User: Fold this.
Amino acid sequence: MAAKIEGIFTPHMVPLDGQGNICETELRRYVEWLITKGVHGLYPNGSTGEFIRFSPDERRRIVRIVCDQAAGRVPVLAGAAESTTRETIDACQTYAEYGARAVAIVSPFYYRLGAESVYAYFREIALNSPIDVTLYNIPMFASPIDVPTIQRLAELERIVGIKDSSGDLPFMMRMIRSVRSARPDFVFLTGWDVVLVPMLLLGCNGGTNAISGVTPELTRRLYDLVRAGNIAEAVTLQYRLLELFDTMLYSADFPEGFRAGVELRGFAMGQSRQPMSENQRIDRAGLQRVLQCILADFGFVEAPAEGCPPRTGSVERDRVAQITANVVHELRQRGVL
Amino acid sequence: MAAKIEGIFTPHMVPLDGQGNICETELRRYVEWLITKGVHGLYPNGSTGEFIRFSPDERRRIVRIVCDQAAGRVPVLAGAAESTTRETIDACQTYAEYGARAVAIVSPFYYRLGAESVYAYFREIALNSPIDVTLYNIPMFASPIDVPTIQRLAELERIVGIKDSSGDLPFMMRMIRSVRSARPDFVFLTGWDVVLVPMLLLGCNGGTNAISGVTPELTRRLYDLVRAGNIAEAVTLQYRLLELFDTMLYSADFPEGFRAGVELRGFAMGQSRQPMSENQRIDRAGLQRVLQCILADFGFVEAPAEGCPPRTGSVERDRVAQITANVVHELRQRGVL
Amino acid sequence: MAAKIEGIFTPHMVPLDGQGNICETELRRYVEWLITKGVHGLYPNGSTGEFIRFSPDERRRIVRIVCDQAAGRVPVLAGAAESTTRETIDACQTYAEYGARAVAIVSPFYYRLGAESVYAYFREIALNSPIDVTLYNIPMFASPIDVPTIQRLAELERIVGIKDSSGDLPFMMRMIRSVRSARPDFVFLTGWDVVLVPMLLLGCNGGTNAISGVTPELTRRLYDLVRAGNIAEAVTLQYRLLELFDTMLYSADFPEGFRAGVELRGFAMGQSRQPMSENQRIDRAGLQRVLQCILADFGFVEAPAEGCPPRTGSVERDRVAQITANVVHELRQRGVL
Amino acid sequence: MAAKIEGIFTPHMVPLDGQGNICETELRRYVEWLITKGVHGLYPNGSTGEFIRFSPDERRRIVRIVCDQAAGRVPVLAGAAESTTRETIDACQTYAEYGARAVAIVSPFYYRLGAESVYAYFREIALNSPIDVTLYNIPMFASPIDVPTIQRLAELERIVGIKDSSGDLPFMMRMIRSVRSARPDFVFLTGWDVVLVPMLLLGCNGGTNAISGVTPELTRRLYDLVRAGNIAEAVTLQYRLLELFDTMLYSADFPEGFRAGVELRGFAMGQSRQPMSENQRIDRAGLQRVLQCILADFGFVEAPAEGCPPRTGSVERDRVAQITANVVHELRQRGVL
Assistant:
């Protein structure tokens, strides 16, 4: 029987080269680094991994590279959603051949479908997939999966877990309560980094956390602290990760802030396939300076040569300060001031 | 200079065969029928057309067939959004070669991007497209395009209009006020069928209306009535279309109700690529009976042999009645009653 | 039989004196002016009238003054919602004695109640009120009233209409379709100024429009133009009112922008009972300058001595310009620049 | 110096007599029971306490009775929001005289005010209140208080804490991070019962939990377990409280389910001032049966004579079962089946 999916699975990004194509060398180097740093598994083609910005062929190539590089050292949870169930099932077969441990299928997106449609969608995939399936609930981007639907879907053996990125604790508790007694093997993973500690305490089996692609050591340590019952230290670390997470999440359109973070750890990520305006380039440079300061606090990088501003402890205030600085800077350049 | 995009553009669906593939024969027959019934243009690969449920190759094939069948008799507005700007620009080139009048590009979806990203995205496409571009704003499914962004994008010559499916009248007025004086040629189309009359009165150039794929005669007549200044009759027809629209929109996950409607007009649409549960099949059969009654009122089809229930004038009440009937039916079948 | 409630009912504000108390003299002068300018009725204790910021006794006093001043020349629709149905019914009795034509009762607020509770609430009031009742639906502030509930409530003779401030045209159409055939006397009023023209065209009987407290002449003219079938001119005026409305609505927390507008028409409104920060005072002064420019375009007031900035036609851009100016102003004052 | 506000403060309901008036005897008996059962403090005039459904005089009377009955044994946190800051400040003075430990002021409601208005509102009250003030953030019912605003307000000595009912853990963490270092005495209370354990672990000082008005023993025990570091047992209890909470919260419009719960503990609560429809009475009877079963599991009451249905562990499913039963029951009564 296959190993249970537990611990920290990194929904990693994909480095691009100067032409905007997948940079295989850097992807392998990045995946290798993540494994070395202690993540329990890899999760290509997630939302952080920008699956929607790759073609079907590219998505396959990403999973192939990642499975190959992981070489069985850590399990791979492969994002497999395609435009139809038929193509998704095809992808499931391919990823099974590549050696993925399971696939993760996001709920239908673009249209906001009701519970019956969500059920029918996953049911068809589960009945035809040769590889274990985890559901992926991310209601801010895709049709929500509600508790009764999860309960119905958990009756299908092929469905082995759910990754939930709502960050909603009571929802997680309702899911666990509804499913666990009948399916003790069913796995619950949280995709909302800033509540990882409470989620684990309430019974989650692990997380698929974007931040673990930037600071895999810390997410792993958070997990280990909770498992060791060292709650006080885990909470302290959770607070520190909150600042890092907020900075990467709210200072640029997702997941660009995380790309900026991975770059600071020494990987050439290339430009996003989502174009940026001139204003956004300026903002991103400012964001990266702030990020460098936070990462320097952890000792991962050097602080910027020009020094770090005193942080107020409030991302909002820091951002306002940064924005004001940028506005003034720009006004000066335009000769307005 | 190319003709202005005006009037009713049908965001038509795509018939599928028994294997779930595009049925070219039926698609051509359907497109031909729409042209005969008087729509001003065709709009393949829209939201109603389920563009997200086709592969990139299939989307190209759909546009090729539609352009070919239209044969210049009516303009084609081709949905061209692909997973990256590079691929979208490729599609623009292809659709220009096929003879499309313009492309429609939906705002980036899945992620909810901010205004700067939306601007940068459309700007890059507009600067590289060999064919006129219309923006497509559908905030319930994709990143919203706000008024200042539209104003900035209207500075690019290649962008010639916007299709807005928010149904928000004041928003439409704000767009028109912000853009029209500087760009009198810029076209505003509404995708929200039930406010077509007021939208036209407030200055819209036309609509891309799902209902025109089911009752092209009526949408066309609505348009003609407004243009002729016959407001009273237009309003009466608008009210009748409201019932039809609500029934198709709210009785099944979009756009399944419209597929049911097109079938009633005599086209074999095939099963949706989105799987249906058993419950949904029962609901859909019930919906189709109600739809048949409404279409019979207009004289488009025969009323069902078993007769039509008295309609209360309230879709909500009618649906409750229908649901209750179904529940009881099912309970009886299961031997509960 | 009492006259039908039709036309423009002004949800007027209440002038306060230097101590923050109701200024009866100015209230009478203001009400008199509104009548002179042609509004069809008065609507004290609405949302614009800040009913929630007055005590139960003050609310009674406001209605007493307004009924007395109107003296039967125009009907008074008195906002009568109190903290319980018992007290609300008391207020209904009092307002009947004062000579109000009808009361308007907002749906229960603070808690968001479901349809059954909303129904039970209005039913109890309707069965005990000695005066005609209009429902007041304002879903952004109070529990929503849905179409089936309106249909049920319209079975009660005492309920004679609904004032809807959702601004949602299809919702208005659904209400009208559900109720009008059984209750042709039932009145539909819209509280969303910027869609007054389409609402009237679709069958509304009138409006309770905040803007009519600032420019009663214009709202009245809009109404008359639609009734006379002069749609083109009505639409042009509607667009001009959009700019005025947006400026008053979005440049300060509601209804402070409308207070600023009424002041410009020559009434001493006093300070709001909602405290303002220093920043807000600066913003309000800026808003009032913009408002003065817009009102000067209509010829109602003189333009500011320092002149008016060129308006871009986009409230958003104008506001950004204003904000930037304010930021720079403040930074200079603080010695930052 | 006054004692820090810590632990479980019960936002208790107010028993009404047959005429719908405050029943002082029962209120005293209920408050006495709560104290006996171990809650750390009392919180009259909260949202659970239906403050909005009492007159200003009644609200004063409630606080007077509660302070008198508590007689200094436990601190009283008195809800003091009135329609204007002036009247609110009056209430603050009165409640100080009654011996309340502090007041709780809900953010301005009905209108949704922006951050500057919220700041100005609380600032004015804080500068004029003779008694400590706690902010009350409940964004589903009132204007939201954001993190920068809390940070600014925490600069005022009179403001000593915040009660947050958003249930949003990352928001709570952001507040704590922004305020605690500068104001270590500042108190954070959570009003969202189902996340009490994680909130306490992340640094909250206590809770104002509706459920503690029904099962004060359990909320107190939850608190004690967390403080004693017995996380595993606390989590188990938290899961059991989730079922109870969901049943009371989602089976009737808030806070009617809690009234039903308090009744089961032996207090005559009287009918709500919010009228109920016939359907609602039937639903409430069904709810009370389910509640009785849950409370019987804890040993607080006897199970219903007719026995308890097997619970599936999913409130949604149980509710569907209950609804279906009710529908069938009703249909039978109407002779439909």
Q: What stands out?
A: The interface with chain D takes residues 146-148, 151, 167, 169-170, 173-174, 176-178, 181, 194-195, 197-198, 201-203, 229, 231, 235, 238-239, 242-243, 246, 312-317, 320 of chain A (CB under 8 Å).
